[in-house]
Amino acid sequence: MNPVPSPGRVVIVGSGLSGLVSAVLLAEAGWSVTLLEAHAIPGGLMQRYQRAGRWFDTGFHLLTDGGPTGMVRRILRRLGVLEQVHFLAPDPAAQFLMHVPGQEPLALPIGLVATGLAAETRWPDQAVGIQRFFSLVRGRLAANRWLAHLAEGMAPQESGFPGESVRDVLGRCGVTGEAAEVLGAASAILAMRAERCPFELYATFAGAGFTGSWRVAGGGDGLIRPLVERLAALGGRLLLRNAATAILHDGTRATAVVDARGQRHDADLVITTCHPDLVVAMTGEQGFRPSFKARVAAIPDSAGAFLLAAELSEPAVGLGRRHHLLRLADGSDGYVVAPDAWGEAQPPSIEAMVWLDTAAVAAWRSSTVGRRPGDYVAWKAAQEVRLRQALAAHFPWLTPTIRRTWLATPLTFRDYLGGRDGGAMGLSQDLGHLGDAPLQSRNKLRNLLMIGQSITHPGIQGVLVGACLVVGGVLGKDLHQELS
Ligand SMILES: Cc1cc2nc3c(=O)[nH]c(=O)nc-3n(C[C@H](O)[C@H](O)[C@H](O)COP(=O)(O)OP(=O)(O)OC[C@H]3O[C@@H](n4cnc5c(N)ncnc54)[C@H](O)[C@@H]3O)c2cc1C
């Protein structure tokens, strides 16, 4: 039985994509919605902000399954904002360019079958294994009702891959050497390495990415602003600079959320989208079972991002409308994109990043924005040199065009977005951590629902689907059926 009276008063913590989608769905169904956001700007990892007259994006906008008939657009249509979002198509012949040192970049076209063929053409001696691998990816997509449209005609691969990494499955299919390294490197779009990335997640995230990874004009704001406007039109309240500090409850049900100004917001339903560690802290001693608290405490954050935004003297036309995945000489993984090359009216620029363990900044965790010590500043400068060397190695023509750069580290993410250690995708979804055993949305307090990238599924499409699933449960509706 649904323990939540419907419609009633809902307080949502966090105005990232998960929070905004939930807020719009509930406001549309007649709920009285209060959305609390700690930051001055809505959007969480999808927010866009200005420094020195330039716009920056916090995350990237590789929209998996973003094609014209994809689930992302179906959900946006259902939310009433599709017309306001302008999608930017990738180069159909080479939407991904995989750069691995010592190898010619591998261009992956749109489509899973075409992607598999591109790999088979590069490594003909491994064609059978590559076909097997892509058939497993497609089979897993076919088995997921939210993604099955991406693998039409394919028999669902019902049995899971418990405990199996991308590397394991590649090996089982007989894909080895360079082919395994390059195909496995696509785990980087999940901030993971092939040897620790659950194959299930790879199939649904990278697999959906291979079917079409679009961008939206206006960066993260291109998606967030229409949702903010839609929520306002539906009468929902978005309170910025208004962090939730405590979730009040009677041991079985949440009753209210208290914000940083000391104001109490009574609630029939509370939805949290922030880092689970914060939710545990906000509910106090009796909010969750000890086993749940211990699990959250034991799971580290996912990899963090070192981000570089660069102003260029001329457009980086050579990057094209493509997502570039880079394997650096030291083995770490990065990403580069030139937003203006996708037809966005903005000055020539690139956004580049490399994943790193959040432990890399552990020594400076007690520091705050604007008051970082000298050794942190030196570390940050060294990271910039490392990333720029990688860019120079892959795109030597880019270096002389770089005029000015701006940097962000896991500490920047932590301090602006309120996570624990600044992991880019919340809690680690690696095998051995969340892996095959995700946290449950509903716990001891029956009307407190946790959603967002640590709980349902990471990534833009993942949190969109996650919010629809969980809020659909509250509304007693099968939103997937409505979208089909
Ligand atoms: C560098 C980087 C690149 C990425 N690239 C991609 C990509 O190309 N494709 C893709 O699909 N995904 C990408 N992602 C991941 C994707 O952006 C996220 O999975 C998604 O946006 C998460 O949304 P969310 O709503 O779950 O969480 P968030 O966006 O983290 O939202 C949580 C919100 O809660 C707020 N908050 C925290 N504490 C409180 C509090 N106490 N009170 C009130 N508010 C609070 C935060 O300020 C934030 O606004 C990337 C992430 C990063 C970091």
What brief labels describe this structure?
single chain; 484 residues; alpha/beta; FAD/NAD(P)-binding domain; 3 domains; seven-stranded mixed beta sheet; five-stranded parallel beta sheet; 14 helices; 32% helix; 18% strand; binds flavin-adenine dinucleotide
Question: What would you note in describing this structure?
Answer:
By secondary structure, this protein is an alpha/beta fold. The chain has three domains: 9-83 and 218-299 and 429-483, FAD/NAD(P)-binding domain; 91-210, no CATH class; 303-417. 32% of the residues lie in helices and 18% in strands. The chain contains 14 helices and 19 strands. It has helices at 17-28, 71-79, 112-122, 127-142, 166-172, 177-185, 199-210, 221-233, 276-283, 290-298, 374-394, 410-417, 460-475, 479-483, and strands at residues 9-13, 32-36, 48-51, 54-57, 87-88, 96-99, 106-108, 215-216, 237-239, 244-249, 254-259, 264-266, 269-272, 304-312, 323-327, 333-337, 349-356, 402-408, 448-450. It has a seven-stranded mixed β-sheet with strand order 7-6-15-16-17-14-18. It has a five-stranded parallel β-sheet with strand order 9-2-1-13-19. It has a three-stranded antiparallel β-sheet with strand order 10-11-12. Helix 1 packs parallel to helix 8 (221-233), helix 3 packs antiparallel against helix 4 and helix 4 packs across helix 7. It is globular. The protein starts with 8 loop residues before the first strand and ends with a helix. The model has no long low-confidence stretch (mean pLDDT 94).
